[in-house]
Write a structure and sequence with these properties.
The complex is a heterotrimer.
Chain A: E1 2-14, E2 20-32, E3 36-40, H1 47-54, E4 62-71, E5 74-75, H2 81-88, E6 93-96, H3 110-121, H4 127-140, H5 157-168, E7 175-179, H6 187-202, E8 208-213, H7 216-222, E9 225-230, E10 233-239, H8 240-245, H9 250-257, E11 307-310, E12 313-316
Chain B: H1 2-9, H2 11-33, H3 64-100, H4 102-117, H5 120-130, H6 136-146, H7 149-162, H8 166-173, H9 178-214, H10 225-234, H11 243-271
Helix pairs in contact in B: 2-3, 2-11, 3-4, 3-6, 3-7, 3-9, 3-10, 3-11, 4-7, 5-6, 7-9, 8-9, 9-10, 9-11, 10-11
Chain C: E1 4-15, E2 22-33, E3 37-41, H1 48-55, E4 63-68, E5 71-72, H2 79-86, E6 89-92, H3 106-113, H4 123-136, H5 141-144, H6 154-166, E7 172-176, H7 184-201, E8 204-209, H8 212-218, E9 221-226, E10 229-235, H9 236-241, H10 246-254
The chains are: A alpha/beta, B mainly alpha, C alpha/beta.
Chain lengths: 324, 278, 264
């Protein structure tokens, strides 16, 4: 069942000088019940903007320039902002934005953060009820209840992030979106965050999860499906295993090829980077956006690649598998 | 070019700058183009404004308008010199303290803090009384030497935090001397703040001079806006209703202050984008 | 067996005074051989950055010694000894944005670094050195020298930083998280540039990193630090495949893996 569907979505930024940054430029993607979808990409590919679109949280200067965002079949963008805020944000979809744990108000205890968050969505909920619920949930997630009384600086990075995730899922959202939730954490904290997400999925507290990151090995640990994003578009999407071990798009192949892991075989390989840089999204090139950096480019790449589906995988490339 | 254009975006800055420009033209070109002597007794005492004396005469029968021109020039001069001096001292002390750290910082900041707690006006009065012959230059010196502490404190805080940035480490690894690093690697990053501090110091210096002069402790050999006010007070212009003797200098001082503060506020908006109103 | 270049003996660094003092680095000793690529691995708070700063003489140790080519460098604290040291030891830091003075061009940045040389170079010699260094890191001098830092990408900036470090022809380069601030696709090329420099010039390189994958890929030897102490040291192959200390074992277990070779 599709919980969230994006149909040819275009989300652009209007800069103060009047230019338009085409951060998300024609993305079709669906998030299914029971799955963790990983979105892999580097800085500037539009993945954070995509996360905002998925979270139904587009603030100016970001605006929806085309396409549809469907939640459970309902075109959410057409709803009035009040309804969106009350019925969907936090309840249907919850988001843990990038750097969330650093954005906690340092002069307020965690319990204040919880109370504020709960009251945002359930204005008739008393502060006591909100905190009770939070305590229950923390216990269920094996987090110490004392974090509620702490100030953000008193908690470790991993603890802060897990607390933020726990609080963001208090309303049992169907979709949880995490934008780089572990980028500032040590590997051990990283692991506990992943375990927390797996647990939330298993207990069906959340029904699906979107995990945005630039680190592929991380996605291999947590994601069922992976979408590789480049220059505002999806290059390839499919099962985590097949995308990481049998990539078909030249960009995915190169991205996988640049991964460094402390495993056998790593030392013998020559890891290569990708020459050049991603296109400026104010003036994206026509045709395939990876063409300028692709080893297999030819004439047909001057036109926008069409989607090729094979089994569980979709590739947007004229020569899928050329890099295999 | 883009810097100038950015400044032009701020209404406050432009307004303040234009007013300041008008005051400057009045205060610099006015005396230069005037053939009259401000200290010449040209008319009778406290004559009302008329065709001959546009702003009337003061208690000595001198032309108020001419006095205003020359007075403005003096006040601006003292303000500028005093302000620049105060900023320069504050910048030097603050940068040295923030950059060196250790006992140098402790010593300099200790001194600064002590000076801050003593009311400036008291020091100014004491100095002015002690120095019996005072020219505009002496006034600038007195003001410049007493007004720097708050600038030093703020500059020290900025320098302290800038010191830990990686490009300072790279400069050290490149063999840069401490002095070179302070000028090349720290100062440009504080430039916007220092410029704003300068504007505030100039404004404050103009008012300090006016205050001292009004108390009779101003320049002994020339006229300034404060000196005009001093005479107006001593010679009971308020009681006799000779508003033209005290209102013009008051207005000139207010307008100048306002212009400088508006420029400062405008710059704050420019340098701190978060303060910009949409 | 090549000669020893750097010897670190019982290095310690305390912060704070008296009872509340914290040992960021606690009695650390290791040896680096000439021409070696070695990694110092640790998580945040391990003390690895403090060790790096002491190796760069940007920070003085509380106790212990550092010997370079047999000479104790920590005993002399005057400016001249620092300058002499920095002719031999240079660094590349993590943040390619903050490492630059944003107000000056690349040309000025590089020229400043040449100021440390004992014998000042002529204008032509300086230009030749700058051009050569930029070419060695894969940048076109004609397209780089006149630019300001904001006009370059993260990867390009980091390459300029490497070029800057190379200009005085140091024997030892400390790379503190050199690729954490840049994208995965550019990361590999920057690392390969450093490894090529190691091969071509015999430059000794020490990577300071939290990334075991990077350490394993680049280095012959890996040193593992935790809470100020050196807990494990050995050949990269041994440390990663057969860790002895439980901290290293836990660290390796927590690193996200792929288990098999990615097809590329």
């Amino acid at each position: 069942m599709e919980l969230l569907t994006l149909a040819d979505v275009k989300a652009y930024y209007r800069t103060p000088s009047g230019q338009i940054v085409r951060a998300v430029d024609g993305v079709t993607l669906s998030i299914n019940e029971g799955e963790v979808l990983g979105i892999a990409g580097e800085s500037g590919c539009g993945k954070t903007t995509l996360a905002q679109v998925l979270a139904l949280n587009m603030q100016p200067p970001l605006y929806l320039a085309g396409g549809e965002v469907l939640a459970d079949g309902v075109d959410v963008q057409k709803l009035p902002p009040e309804v969106k805020r009350r019925e969907y944000r936090g309840k249907y979809i919850s988001v843990v934005p990038q750097g969330a744990m650093s954005a906690l108000n340092p002069s307020l205890r965690i319990r204040q953060f919880v109370a504020d968050l709960m009251r945002e969505h359930y204005s008739d909920l008393t502060k006591r009820d909100a905190l009770d619920r939070a305590e229950q949930r923390l216990r269920a997630l094996d987090l110490p209840v004392r974090v509620l009384d702490a100030y953000p600086h008193q908690l470790s990075g991993g603890m802060k992030q897990r607390t933020v995730i726990a609080i963001s899922t208090l309303l049992d959202p169907k979709v949880l979106i995490c934008d780089e939730p572990t980028s500032a954490l040590d590997v051990s904290s990283q692991r506990s965050v992943l375990e927390l997400l797996r647990w939330l999925m298993k207990e069906k507290i959340i029904r699906s999860c979107v995990f945005v990151t630039h680190e592929l090995p991380l996605l291999y640990q947590i994601a069922d499906r992976v979408a590789v994003m480049y220059a505002g578009r999806i290059a390839e999407v499919g099962g985590a295993e097949e995308i990481i071990f049998r990539p078909q798009h030249p960009y995915s192949t190169a991205l996988v090829g640049a991964v460094l892991v402390p495993e056998k075989g790593m030392k013998e390989r020559r890891v290569e980077g990708i020459p050049g840089a991603p296109p400026d999204l104010r003036t994206p090139p026509t045709g395939c956006r990876f063409a300028a950096r692709c080893r297999f480019v030819d004439e047909q790449c001057k036109a926008d690649p069409v989607e090729r589906t094979s089994g569980t995988r979709q590739v947007w490339c004229w020569k899928p598998g050329a890099s295999a | 070019m883009t810097i100038i254009r950015t400044f032009l975006h701020s209404g406050r800055f432009v307004a303040g700058f234009l007013i300041l420009l008008a005051v400057l033209i009045f205060g610099i070109l006015g005396p230069t183009l005037s053939s009259k002597d401000p200290l010449e007794m040209a008319g009778s005492i406290y004559q009302k404004p008329d065709d001959k004396f546009l702003l009337g005469t003061d208690n000595f029968g001198r032309d108020v308008l001419t006095e205003l021109k020359f007075g403005t020039r003096t006040s601006l001069t003292v303000g500028l010199l005093g302000g620049v001096m105060a900023t320069a001292i504050g910048l030097s002390v603050g940068t040295l303290a923030g950059f060196r750290g250790g006992w140098v910082e402790e010593l300099l900041m200790g001194l600064t803090n002590v000076l801050i707690t003593i009311p400036t006006i008291v020091i100014l009065i004491l100095l002015s009384v002690a120095i019996t012959v005072r020219s505009a230059w002496v006034m600038s010196l007195i003001i410049g030497v007493t007004a720097w502490p708050w600038t030093a404190r703020a500059v020290r805080a900025q320098t302290s935090s800038l010191r830990t940035r990686p490009h300072l480490d790279i400069a050290r690894l490149s063999g840069s001397s401490g002095f070179a690093m302070a000028i090349i690697d720290v100062l440009p990053y504080m430039a916007s703040y220092v410029f704003m501090a300068l504007i505030l110091q100039v404004s404050s210096a103009i008012l300090s001079e006016a205050t001292l002069s009004m108390l009779g402790l101003g320049p002994t050999n020339t006229i300034s806006l404060g000196v005009m006010l001093n005479w107006a007070l001593l010679w009971e212009s308020v009681r006799t209703g000779a508003w033209w003797a005290f209102l013009p200098p008051v207005v000139m001082l207010s307008v100048t202050s306002f212009a400088l503060l508006a420029m400062n506020s405008g710059m704050d908006e420019i340098f701190n984008p978060r303060l910009r109103r949409r | 067996m090549s000669e020893t270049l750097i010897q670190v003996q019982n290095l310690s660094r305390l912060f704070g005074h008296g009872k509340g003092a914290v040992a960021a680095v606690n009695d650390v000793s290791f040896t680096i051989r000439r021409g070696q690529v070695i990694s110092l691995v640790g998580e945040s708070g391990s003390g690895k950055t403090t060790v790096a700063r002491m190796l760069l003489r940007l920070l003085e140790p509380t106790s212990g010694r550092i010997l370079v080519e047999g000479h104790d460098v920590t005993s002399k604290k005057n400016r001249e000894s620092h300058l002499a040291y920095w002719r031999k030891v240079q660094a590349v830091f993590q943040d390619p944005y903050a490492s630059f003075n944003a107000y000056f061009s690349i040309h000025t940045c590089l020229e400043r670094s040449l100021g440390i040389l004992e014998k000042p170079l002529s204008r032509d010699e300086k230009m030749a050195t700058m051009r050569h260094s930029l070419e060695m890191v894969g940048l076109n001098p004609n397209e780089t020298l006149h630019k300001k830092p904001f006009e370059l990408s993260g990867g390009q900036r980091q390459r300029v930083m490497i070029a800057r470090a190379l200009m005085v022809k140091p024997s030892f380069l400390v790379a503190d998280e050199p690729t954490s601030g840049i994208d995965a696709s550019t990361r590999a090329s920057v690392l390969n540039t450093l490894l090529d420099i190691n091969k071509k010039l015999g430059m000794t390189i020490m990577f300071i990193t939290h990334d075991l994958g990077l350490a394993y890929y680049t280095s012959e030897e890996i040193l593992v630090m935790s809470k100020g102490k050196l807990v494990e040291a050995g050949l990269a192959e041994q440390v990663v495949m057969d860790p002895q200390h439980e901290y290293t074992q836990r660290l390796l277990a927590d690193v996200p893996r792929l288990h098999s070779r990615p097809t590329a």
